[in-house]
Amino acid sequence: MITSFVNIKLFVRLLGAAYSLLIICSCQSKISADKNVDSVLVSEQLIDSLRGHTSLPSIYFDKYSTAREEFNKSHDDADALIWYGRRTAYLGLYKEAIDVFTEGVDRFPEDARMYRHRGHRLISLRRYDEAIEDFKSAVSLIDGKDDQVEPDGLPNDKNIPLSTLHGNIWYHLGLAYYLKNDLHHALQAFSNRAVTERYDDNIVSGGHWLYMINRRLGQNEAARIILEPITNDMDIIENGSYYKMCQFYKGLIEEEALQPEGFRSSSDDVLKYGLANWNLYHLQDTAKAELILDDLLENGNKFSFAYIAAEADRKRMLQTQESN
Predict the structure, then answer these.
(1) E strands within 172-293?
(2) Between 173 and which of 132, 135, 269, 303 could a Cys-Cys bridge form, CB atoms 3.0 to 4.6 Å apart?
């Protein structure tokens, strides 16, 4: 009887010790997690310095500050982390944004959005292989799941979000393959229905890349079919340059209509890149294509997709010329 009582007391003591150890470990884990979060917070000095040396509108910084505050309130809020990462990227701090989304991948490994947004910013830094791996991970995570509208960080004039999570994953995967000149995989990714199924804006943005890919592959009939939905009365909200290129490809407008008007923007880069490609695969005028690409690289937005594509193409051209 005494032995049983001693055993019970011993068991209670051991149970208490185990519980205390669990609490300690839990606290240490939280401290470690908080330290990780602190490491991805952009220093206020960097933000203040950037604010004084950029042409970005002040609203970008205001929205960044709000996103940072929301993230600080709850480090376990996936939405808050995503918005903090996105607002960081909108300030041009792509490496810092990647760090934020990497924290997101660690905290929410089953959330495809973390991989999708990190992959996007890996493209911005020309880290295409890593981007492809992220988008492939995202594809696996969305398999069999319903799609969802992706809120815009920079809303259009009608404040209508035009893209979805699935569409953006496949679109950016296609782009990453395209930038590596892996045209067959790029074609497969851009051909996913989620890329072009919702709005006219999606039809022209996806159609622009699909047309160029098919032409580069010598699949002219497939390229022609891509343009079948293109008309002169489409309801385009924000992808005006992609629309113009598709109209041009189909012969609905002339080259003169592709000249940029007024203030330079990333949309101008789309027109120049599309026209350079047209000179390559349609007119076989490599010299003119090179002139247009060089102009784009000298005057364009270094982080627009068209600029990045022009940069990759021009690099391959130079390598080919050197090898010959």
Answers:
(1) none
(2) 135
Residues near 301 by Cβ (< 8 Å), separated by ≥ 6? 265, 266, 269, 307
Judge contact between 199 and 162, C-beta under 8 A. yes
d(CA 36, CA 54): 29
**Over residues 313-320, mean pLDDT:** 95
By C-alpha distance, which of 255, 209, 247, 248 is closest to 230?
247
Q: What is the pLDDT of residues 157-205, one digit of tens each?
A: 999 999 999 999 999 999 999 999 999 999 999 999 999 988 999 999 9
Partnered with residue 149 across adjacent β-strands are 164
* Distance (Å) of CA 56 to CA 60, 287, 303, 317: 7, 36, 14, 34
Q: Give the per-residue pLDDT at 242.
A: 97
For residue 42, give the DSSP letter. P
Sequence-distant (6+) residues with CB within 8 A of 295 are 272
Are 274 and 208 spatial neighbours (Cβ–Cβ below 8 Å)?
Answer: yes
Tell whether the torsion through CA atoms of 169, 90, 102 and 176 is positive or negative. Answer: positive
Copy the structure tokens of residue 55: 């042409």
86 neighbors 100 (Cβ within 8 angstroms): no
Please tell me the predicted confidence (pLDDT) of residue 251. Answer: 98
In the chain the domains, ranked by start, together with CATH numbers, are 38-109 (no CATH), 110-149+161-198 (1.25.40.10)
Of the pLDDT bands very low, low, confident and very high (cuts 50, 70, 90), residue 40 is confident
Tell me if 218 sits within 8 A of 142, measured CB to CB: no
Kindly state the greatest CA–CA separation across the chain.
101
39: pLDDT strictly greater than 80: no
